[in-house]
Amino acid sequence: MSAMSAILKAILQLWFLQPVVIITALLQAVFPQFILVVGQFPTVPTTKCVISVVESFYHYDVTVKVELCPSRCPIYVYGVLHSFVHKNSNHILYSYHFDIYLVIMANNLRRAIQDLTLGIEDEPVPLSATVCNEARRVNQFSLVGRPTIQRKQNIRALMTSLPKMWGLSGIISGRLVERRKFQFVFPSEELLQSVLNRGPWAFNDRMVVIKRWMPEMDDNDLMQIPFWVQISGIPMEYLTEGVIRNIGDIMGEAMLVDFNPEANAAVEYVRVQLNWNLAQPLRFQKNFQFSPGVNTLLKFRYERLRGFCETCGMITHDSGECIPHGEDLQNDSEPDDEDNEV
């Protein structure tokens, strides 16, 4: 290229091409397949528009090739301009997420600072026995619980919906306990038992753990759901309450057996209430040997069961989301909120 052509190219880039390239960049941002083509020349390589909402990285340039004055002396001018739309949008979104992470880090740091042990060696302070006894009386009719899949069950929406499901809106209210647990205080034993007797309960088509509050409860007490299980396939000669309870104990922890040998109705299945451990996968069919060497296939149907993994049978995650090494809902988390009342 001659010196005059080089000078002309520089002038065109400065005074003519920049508006064209800017317009092209805008169109490219809106229409990823748009290419500005003036004249006859090979296809101009372009890249797809990508705006990251997770991390900041530079996108490829938008390249425009323009042929000027094609009827006389064709001049091919290449204009390269980094898409300021992509870059700036990406930086704005990245800055937003960075600020959010800074707020979370600051909150965690603020809480961590207050976890100091200052005062732990001071003399114990006795509280009023009257006040403590009144508190125990008020909270004796309490249910505590937790979601089985916290990332799929918003705990605040759950606490708002459960009283409506129970028909107790305006009578009871829930509150968060230690972030991932909730508590409902009932005005009477009868209302509390009516909720337990109609369980188990689900929210967002996934099971919810609900237990009666007892002193010294811990997280292990919130790892069971009581299911009524229908068992079919037991040979008639073995159809007794003892056999049914034995099968229930093998499957889980048998709590109650619903079987009346004096009933005149046909027995299609028997029922046993199992305190099912969430660490164990559900089983819907299983071979039992009522006599040595003879397999009898029994089938199980869990009443009021919602959402579980059809691959492994776990209640603590959805189908196709099997978690290795036995991790369960203990690893679910949700940001803290200082307002614990709903």
From TrEMBL:
Residues 329-342 have a biased composition (Acidic residues). Residues 277-322 form the Zinc knuckle CX2CX4HX4C domain. Residues 323-342 are annotated as: Disordered. Coiled coil: none annotated. InterPro entries: At4g02000-like, DUF4283, Zn_knuckle_CX2CX4HX4C. It comes from the Eukaryota. Residues 139-217 form the DUF4283 domain. This is DUF4283 domain-containing protein. It comes from Brassica campestris.
